[in-house]
Structure formats: structure tokens, C-alpha cells
Design brief:
Elements lengths: L3 E2 L5 E2 L1 H22 L12 E5 L3 E6 L3 H25 L7 E6 L2 H7 L12 E4 L3 E5 H6 L1 H24 L6 H10 L3 H11 L11 H6 L1 H4 L2 H18 L1 H10 L6 H8 L4 H18 L13 H8 L3 H18 L2 H32 L3 H18 L5 H26 L6 H17 L3 H45 L4 H11 L1
Parallel strand pairs: 4-5, 5-7
Antiparallel strand pairs: 1-2, 3-4, 6-7
């Protein structure tokens, strides 16, 4: 043993000092273990076995038949979910992703002392950014629930992994948890969750900051549901693409509030107020059934079209169609496209109805009639009768104006030398009616034609007077001429015979 003398003459052994340091570190480690409840257990020696799929490595205890069956049963479906989520999030994860099946909660806690605790009765958790954890003991204790929720449990963790990937690891824990819940099929597990953890009130119990930033609260089912309603609000109101932009903005933003303010038109405070006052109660009563990642309901768009709100329906359907193309849900996509055609037709009918009105006011009665007829045909095909009366009025008045104008032209073309007097009364009636219908051009045509008739009548009077005077003068001159002229020989002979 080597002894070293210090400056003051004291001797010490370096080995003793090292052992004391190890003892201090051991004490600190023991304190840390004692400070974490339920984790001061000796880890079991587990021999692991692997099963590979396209995107995942299933790791489970060697010789565990139930765990091997889980790997075999869900490898294919989980690969399909990975492809779907990769398309939705427009990202990919570093493969393979581990799905480790731990024998029990104690082994999970022992092997992952810094990972989040798994609540009692929960099947799944997440370790870091590349491992999904399953608890075999809980699965065996609740086989019916596991059969119902197995794939959704894996979806939850997979969505959280994608959220961390897209956000550069800056997604708050509550945001990841809420997105995980939202990524599950609501028609499979949501009703069961509400039965087990009904919302105490229809108002939020915490703010976005509390629900998103507190990792302990994020583990509680009731808080995860409230966090899911935030995700649903952002997706339902502003669309999936914008929510994805929000996740993508997190890596370069100072915090999630700044990212929200950068991506969304409203401020974070306004968004949260709308969620709290308008959306939260609606979500927990019925809106949870409308999930953009699964069963997009066409009912709201059908209702908008039935109400004549074609613009709102078309805008919503455009987002739905893009999402359905990504999801490759071709049956629902076909229905959405059919509804979009109806919405677009409704917009076209609205435009034609507006053009009909504008044309009528501008005096283009031919255009007004054509637009009205086209709009009415489309509305009839849609079963929309709200504008039928107005369109019928425009069409009827425009058609009457055109008919009266045609009659004016007929009178003009058939106007004879003496016919103007007969048609003048009818023209006055036409002019009065055209004035009532708001056709100043037609009224001007009537005035012009009446003036023409009047001028002709005056001309005819002068011509008649001149002709009559000329005829009388000619007759008079002829008579005078006859009186001065020598009688004809026949007349003279008759006169001479009478003398005898």
C-alpha cells in the first residue's frame, strides 16, 4: 500500500479516498432509488427474443408464447399504420421501431428508471423516441379490453413518436398525449373511455399550458382526453395541414405559443378562448365522433349543402378530399367528391342567379332570361327551391319585355300607309307596360314609333288636302273646257232634227 505525505505532514492512502468516493456515489444512488416509489426493486434477468416486421422489431421474453402471439398478430397491421401515419405526417421515423413487451410493471420500471410511469391498468407506454412499451401482465389480466384496444394502444404511441419527430422533440408531453388519443379510432375506444372517465363538467378543468406542459397530468386519462379536444379543435376548425404546419414550426420557435401565433390567424389566447367557450362542450357531447384521421363524417357537408351554404361546404370538402386521398379511403373519397360536385354546382347556380339579376338591372333582358333559366335548372337538380320564386320573376319579366319588344318590331315592319292610326293605341299600352317592367330602351322605341306614325299622319293629311284640291281644280277646268268647246256632230244632228 502506497502512502503519500501531504504538505502538512499528514499521510493518506489514494485507495481509501477512491473507496470513500464510491461509497458516496452509492449513497446518492440509494437516495434516488428511495425517492422514486415502486422502483427500488432488483431487475429480473430477462433473455429477450426478437421478431422483425417491415418497420418494427418486436422484442419479448424468450419462451413467452403470449408475447410471441402479440408480435405475430399485430406486426402486419402496425406496419400498415406506420405507412398511413407516415403519409399523414409527411415524415418518416428511424427504422426499425422497437415494440418491447415487458413481463410486468416492475420490470418496466426497473429497466427504465427515467421513463414515464405507466398507470395501473394501462397497456402501453413510450421509452424515448424509438421504443413502444407494452405490459404483458396487464394484457393477460384484461384480455377483452386488450383485444378491443390493442391496435389503438399502438396507434397512440406511434402518433406520439411522429409528433416528436416532426417537432424536433419539442412537442410538449401533453400535446403528444392529446395527439395520441386523437389518433385512435373514436368509434372503438372513445365511448369506453367516456364510460370509465366521464368529463366532470362541460368546461375545461385546466388551461392549454397546464394540459400540455405538465408531464404528470398528461398521464391521467381525463387530462389526456381534454388535451385530445385541443388537437380536435385545431384540426376540426383549421384543418390537418395547418396543424401539421404548427408541429413543423416547433423546432425553430421559442415555444409552442410562438409557433401557434406564427401558423394560425388567431392569437394563442383567441384560439384557447374559442376552444374553451365554443368547442369544448360540443366536442364532449358529440363532435368527438368526427375525426379527420378516421371516419370523416359527410353529414355536416350534406347539411351545409341542404341549407344552401355552398361556399362553406366546398371549402370544407376541399380539405376533406385532400385528407382522404392521403388516407386512401376511396369509398368515403367518392362520396366526398360527389358532394363537392353538388357544392360546386350550387356555387355555379348562385353565380348565375346573381348574373341574371345584374343583367336585368342593366337592361340585358336576353341575358337575364338565359341566366335565370340555367340557374333554375341547376337549383332544381339540387332540390334547392329557395331562389325559385325570384328566378321565376326575373325570367317572366325578361320574357315579357322581349315579347313586347318583338311586337314593337312587328308593328314597325307592318306599318302601312293608313295602319299607324290603328296601331297607335296598342303602342301606348306597350309603352306603359315596358315602363312598369323597367325597360327604358323599349319605352324609347315606342316613343320613336309613335312619332313616326304621327309624322306620317300629318304628311297624309297634307297630301290628301293637296290631292283633293288638285282634283277639284282639274274637274272645274275640265267643265269650263267642255262649255267652250264646239258640240260634237252627233249632238248637232240631234238638235237639227229636233228643229224640224
Amino acid at each position: 500500500m502506497r502512502t503519500i505525505r501531504g504538505k502538512k505532514g499528514l499521510c493518506y492512502d489514494p485507495g481509501v479516498r477512491f473507496r470513500r468516493l464510491l461509497l458516496l456515489l452509492a449513497c446518492l444512488a440509494a437516495c434516488l432509488v428511495i425517492a422514486v416509489p415502486g422502483r427500488a426493486q432488483t431487475c429480473s434477468l430477462i433473455r429477450w427474443q426478437e421478431t422483425r416486421s417491415q418497420a418494427f422489431t418486436f422484442i419479448y421474453p424468450l419462451g413467452s408464447t403470449p408475447s410471441r402471439q402479440i408480435a405475430q398478430q399485430y406486426a402486419g397491421p402496425l406496419d400498415a399504420e406506420y405507412e398511413r401515419f407516415a403519409a399523414l405526417f409527411e415524415a418518416s421515423l428511424q427504422l426499425p421501431i422497437s415494440v418491447r413487451i415487458y413481463p410486468n410493471l416492475a420490470d418496466y420500471a426497473c429497466l427504465n428508471p427515467l421513463a414515464p410511469q405507466v398507470p395501473e391498468g394501462q397497456f402501453h407506454s413510450r421509452v424515448g423516441g424509438r421504443e413502444i412499451a407494452l405490459i404483458a401482465e396487464t394484457i393477460e389480466q384484461r384480455p377483452d379490453a386488450w383485444q378491443r384496444e390493442a391496435l389503438d394502444s399502438l396507434r397512440y404511441e406511434l402518433a406520439a413518436l411522429f409528433a416528436l419527430q416532426v417537432s424536433g422533440g419539442k412537442a410538449p408531453p401533453g400535446l403528444a398525449a392529446g395527439l395520441g388519443v386523437y389518433a385512435q379510432d373514436p368509434f372503438i375506444t372513445f365511448e369506453n373511455r367516456f364510460a370509465a372517465h366521464p368529463p366532470p363538467t362541460l368546461t375545461p378543468s385546466a388551461s392549454w399550458r397546464t394540459l400540455w406542459e405538465n408531464p404528470e397530468l398528461a398521464q391521467r386519462p381525463e387530462n389526456a382526453l381534454q388535451a385530445a379536444s385541443i388537437t380536435a379543435f385545431l384540426v376540426d376548425v383549421h384543418g390537418w395541414d395547418r396543424f401539421l404546419d404548427f408541429l413543423s414550426a416547433l423546432p425553430t420557435a421559442e415555444n409552442w405559443r410562438q409557433a401557434l401565433g406564427t401558423v394560425y390567424p388567431e392569437s394563442p389566447g383567441e384560439l384557447e378562448a374559442d376552444w374553451r367557450e365554443q368547442y369544448f362542450a360540443l366536442y364532449f357531447t358529440e363532435r368527438w365522433r368526427s375525426n379527420a384521421l378516421y371516419s370523416l363524417s359527410m353529414a355536416p357537408y350534406e347539411q351545409l349543402i341542404a341549407a344552401g351554404a355552398y361556399r362553406a361546404a366546398a371549402d370544407g370538402l376541399a380539405q376533406a378530399i385532400d385528407l382522404l386521398i392521403t388516407l386512401e379511403d376511396f369509398d368515403l373519397l367518392s362520396r366526398a367528391q360527389e358532394l363537392n360536385i353538388r357544392a360546386q354546382n350550387g356555387l355555379a347556380a348562385d353565380a348565375l342567379a346573381s348574373q341574371s339579376r345584374q343583367a336585368y338591372l342593366a337592361g340585358d333582358f336576353g341575358g337575364a332570361l338565359s341566366f335565370a333559366v340555367q340557374a333554375d335548372a341547376i337549383y332544381t337538380d339540387l332540390g334547392d327551391t329557395r331562389n325559385a320564386a325570384a328566378l321565376a320573376t326575373y325570367a317572366s319579366r325578361a320574357r315579357e319585355v322581349l315579347d313586347l319588344r318583338g311586337e314593337i318590331e312587328q308593328i314597325r315592319s307592318g306599318l302601312g300607309l293608313l295602319g299607324g292610326t290603328i296601331q297607335a293605341g296598342r303602342l301606348v299600352e306597350i309603352g306603359v307596360r315596358l315602363d312598369e317592367l323597367g325597360d327604358p330602351v323599349g319605352v324609347s322605341q315606342v316613343h320613336a314609333l309613335l312619332a313616326l306614325i304621327n309624322n306620317r299622319q300629318r304628311s297624309f293629311s297634307v297630301y290628301f288636302a293637296i290631292a283633293g284640291g288638285s282634283l277639284a281644280l282639274l274637274l272645274l277646268l275640265h267643265r269650263i273646257r267642255q262649255l267652250k268647246a264646239r258640240p260634237p256632230d252627233e249632238a248637232l244632228l240631234q238638235w237639227q232634227e229636233s228643229e224640224r
